[in-house]
Recover the amino acids of this structure.
């Protein structure tokens, strides 16, 4: 139907964009990861020193596992918060369903920094939460663990990424044929049994997609740990930022980045297979 010239004109610009801003940077990152720094200068000597340092340096391994633990906690919390809300809006229904849906989406319109600083104000020693707890005589002094800790990072990231988990789940629930739910009730199944045997299995692709969004975005986040994490809440992305910035060790930063990339691609591949498997159920 279309000439070769038309197909080339349509395909070449996006391919050139992907090549220039995705594939070439990844290739440069790969090259940098095999180089090294000597007296502040990058030496283009191909070796595996950076990867050996990652394996033998306990700090990087510890921060990576801490980052994965925080990302897993954020993922669990976003799903716990997002699924019931999506189920309520989609399956149970509400006269003001569209309004409630918009209220969930509105936080995405607000700047990331504003939301992160808001939690810094809430969780601080002189913040809203500590002031309220002291006013109610729950505590006699400010609780220092609320801010500059992994707890603060988890709370902040959960608030920021819950809409990203909610949207795929809501879309998955919206695509469930309502006649299946009605048939389950007609056959005598209770609400819980209908949910567990019909609704939940059919919504699993959305759960996998939402969980993947939350985990990958949390694992790669560096602003929230920087603002509210403190030394105990530093994540692997902050190490990468430091290597490319203050430490000026781009080869090591590139090696860490590639390891994260391989990890994330593996997670995406696994979740894609799970989505396809449950999508056929």
């Amino acid at each position: 139907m279309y000439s070769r010239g038309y197909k080339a004109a349509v395909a070449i610009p996006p391919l050139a964009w992907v090549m220039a801003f995705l594939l070439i940077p990844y290739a440069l990152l790969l090259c940098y990861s095999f180089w090294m720094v000597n007296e502040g200068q990058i030496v283009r000597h191909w070796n595996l020193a950076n990867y050996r340092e990652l394996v033998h340096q306990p700090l990087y391994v510890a921060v990576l596992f801490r980052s994965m633990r925080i990302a897993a906690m954020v993922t669990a919390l976003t799903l716990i918060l997002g699924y019931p809300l999506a189920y309520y809006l989609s399956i149970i229904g509400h006269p003001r369903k569209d309004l409630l849906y918009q209220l969930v989406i509105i936080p995405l319109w607000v700047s990331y920094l504003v939301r992160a600083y808001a939690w810094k104000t809430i969780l601080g020693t002189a913040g809203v939460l500590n002031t309220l707890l002291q006013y109610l005589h729950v505590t006699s002094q400010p609780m220092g663990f609320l801010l500059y800790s992994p707890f603060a990072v988890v709370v902040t990231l959960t608030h920021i990424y819950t809409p990203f988990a909610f949207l795929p789940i809501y879309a998955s629930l919206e695509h469930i044929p309502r006649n299946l739910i009605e048939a389950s009730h007609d056959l005598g199944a209770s609400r819980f049994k209908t949910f567990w045997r019909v609704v939940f299995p059919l919504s699993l692709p959305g759960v996998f997609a939402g969980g993947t969004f939350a985990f990958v975005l949390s694992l790669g986040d560096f602003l929230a740990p920087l603002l509210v994490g403190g030394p105990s809440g530093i994540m692997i992305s902050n190490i990468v930022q430091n290597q490319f910035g203050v430490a000026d060790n781009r080869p090591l930063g590139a090696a860490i980045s590639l390891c994260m990339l391989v990890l994330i691609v593996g997670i995406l591949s696994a979740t894609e297979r799970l989505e396809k498997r449950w999508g056929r159920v």
The first strand starts at residue 36 and ends at 38. The mean pLDDT is 89.
